[in-house]
Write a structure and sequence with these properties.
With 54 residues, this protein is an alpha+beta fold. The chain has one helix and three strands. It has a three-stranded antiparallel sheet, with helices on one face. A hairpin with a 5-residue loop joins strand 1 and strand 2.
């Protein structure tokens, strides 16, 4: 399982946006989020990343 998460700025917390069974599906979701944010993974609240489910 892979997760698309928002790493919150200024803390070690993360917000899980979605979970996917394959890395490719997670990458598709990540790319859509980045494109919706004007092509940048960094937002005012943190940044988007992909990780393996812990």
């Amino acid at each position: 399982m892979h997760q698309v998460v928002l790493e919150l700025a200024g803390s070690r917390k993360v917000h899980v946006i979605s979970e996917h069974s394959t890395k490719e599906e997670a990458l598709d979701k990540y790319i859509k989020l980045v494109e919706a944010n004007k092509g940048s993974p960094v937002t005012s609240k943190g940044k988007y990343t992909i990780r393996k489910k812990p």
